[in-house]
Amino acid sequence: AFKEPHGGELKELYLPEHLADEEKIKAKDYPSWDLTPRQLCDLDLLLNGAFSPLEGFLNKADYESVRDGMRLVNGVLWPMPITLDVNEDFAGSVAEGDTIALRDAEGVLIATLEIEDIWAPNKEEEAEKVFGTTDDTHPAVNYLFHKAGSHYIGGKLRGVEVPTFYDFKLLRDTPAELRGKFRKLGWRKVVAFQTRNPLHRAHQELTFRAARECEANLLIQPVVGMTKPGDIDHFTRVRCYEHVLEQYPEQTTTLSLLNLAMRMAGPREAIWHALIRKNYGCTHFIVGRDHAGPGNDRDGNPFYGPYDAQDLFKEFEEEMDITMVPFKLMVYVENKAEYMPADETGPTDKVLNLSGTEFRRRLAEGLDIPEWFSYPKVVEELRRAHPPKHKQGFTIFFTGLSGSGKSTIANALMVKLLEDGSRPVTLLDGDVVRKNLSSELTFSEEHRNLNIQRIGYVASEITKNRGIAICAPIAPYAKMRRQVREAIEPLGGFLEVHVATPIEVCEERDRKGLYAKARAGIIKGFTGIDDPYEVPENAEIVIDTSELSPDLAAHRILITLEKHGYLK
Ligand code: PPS
């Protein structure tokens, strides 16, 4: 027999077409809630039955029961509170018994929800009981405390329209579709592998062995909804998975993407993942070391023990009716030229190892990655998505007083970088920006900050797309400079150059005659005269143009860029 869904019945919550059309018309008068990306993931899987037996976002009684004891009020096992969080204003504008319209970011009506309960949850209690911590370095606790609205709305859903995803459409399946596929292929036993990382050879060996040992077929089901912040983007990962799929014997293995918003909740999450796979028709589920682990807490200790997930799974395995396949640590044995479970190697075997950290370092620095570790096509995809520093974009952010020499050095630097020719260069000089991006702005603190925010935004886009942005505003406020740095550093390089020419020198040069006007009171709020300049404390480079020519200054910056690896 094919696997029964959790709770006995696949709960697809979409209305039949004629009723959906009617609901769309009625919904014009319903209060409307714009779904967050995480809510849209949850809603997608609620509506397509992946979260069976749930019929909507949890009401208050089910929420408390799940939170406290991992069960719905009717006794069915369910480890994760699936809740619709809203802000106080919206919660106050609707009442129990109302129906609300749930819309995606484009305003498309996805579903309606009949409100059973509106309540303000105790977030500390939820964090403690569900995630075992109130430390907000845990991604789900962070979301709960800092992103989620103050109120929850619970109630049953009526699905109107399947959310649209434009990428990898052929690889997205509903539980019914995947069940249909298994039935068609005659796959009675299916072992599912959950992942949020690229697959390397060890994973391929492990999943292949797991399937062979269970005499089952294999479903690789990676998460493409929301994973741990900092993970490799799903576009890159899916291209990698497609390459790895070629390595499995034909007809044994399939790939399907899961639009899940992970919570990184370790043990509870493992149970949740397995129940979802059961709904997709799988009979076995691979659980590794530290499954869905969020890493370390504030004090550097792991949030969950490495085998907590497997232990909790064992406790509920019979009731869940899906078999756990514990993940074996696979190692490469050089003398045998093959992967083996670590516990099956002999004392004379030469075991090779490349840690995740070492792999990422080699990727970042463009160093060799051996073929025993990963497939060349996978490495190529990852290299394309994460080029070494000399191919990443970067921003050079000059800051300093008017007349300090920012523009002159910035120009010299631009020309030298154009001569080098490795990447396109954009110069966002103070005057140019004031003319083209910020023409309506004054020199008030608020407007100066807005000006820097705009420059930072443009520079971050250029950096992300692997070009070079040279910015040369005064940027007198440290807070704003820090914001720009924080926005750009995750996307590429960032070097702050403080052009620290003393004000006396700037004033004496007075190229534009502005200092004289400021002294005479014709210009008010002039930086350094009657307006503040907060001296940078952690600029990578400090240049005083009363001692260094623009040519040499630009040269110093180039050398620093080389030292940091951004230029060859
Ligand atoms: S800021 O503070 O970063 O937004 O300034 P920025 O966009 O770089 O613009 C600085 C140029 O504007 C001219 N200017 C003034 N500077 C400072 N204070 C006042 N009140 C002011 N009024 C006009 C001045 O020419 C600056 O150009 P640079 O190239 O820095 O000399």
Residue share in helices? 25-40%
CA radius of gyration is: 29 Å
Q: If helices are DSSP runs of H or I spanning 4 or more residues, what is the number of helices?
A: 20
Main β sheet profile: 6 strands, mixed
Report the average pLDDT across residues. 96
| DSSP strand content | 15-25%
Terminal CA distance reads: 62 Å
Structural class: alpha/beta
Ligands bound, unique = 3'-phosphate-adenosine-5'-phosphate sulfate
Shape: globular
Low-confidence stretches: none
The counted number of beta strands is 19
Task: Describe the secondary structure blueprint for this structure.
Elements: H1 17-26, E1 32-34, H2 37-47, E2 56-57, H3 60-69, E3 84-86, H4 88-93, E4 99-103, E5 109-119, H5 123-131, H6 139-147, E6 151-159, H7 175-185, E7 190-195, H8 201-214, E8 217-222, H9 234-245, E9 253-255, H10 266-279, E10 284-287, H11 308-320, E11 323-326, E12 330-333, E13 338-341, E14 351-352, H12 356-365, H13 376-385, E15 394-400, H14 406-420, E16 425-429, H15 430-436, H16 445-464, E17 468-472, H17 478-488, E18 493-499, H18 503-509, H19 514-519, E19 541-543, H20 550-563
Parallel strand pairs: 1-4, 7-8, 7-10, 8-9, 10-11, 15-17, 15-18, 16-17, 18-19
Antiparallel strand pairs: 2-6, 3-6, 4-5, 5-6, 12-13, 12-14
Helix pairs in contact: 5-6, 9-13, 10-11, 14-20, 16-17
The structure holds 3'-phosphate-adenosine-5'-phosphate sulfate.
3'-phosphate-adenosine-5'-phosphate sulfate binds next to helix 15 and helix 16.
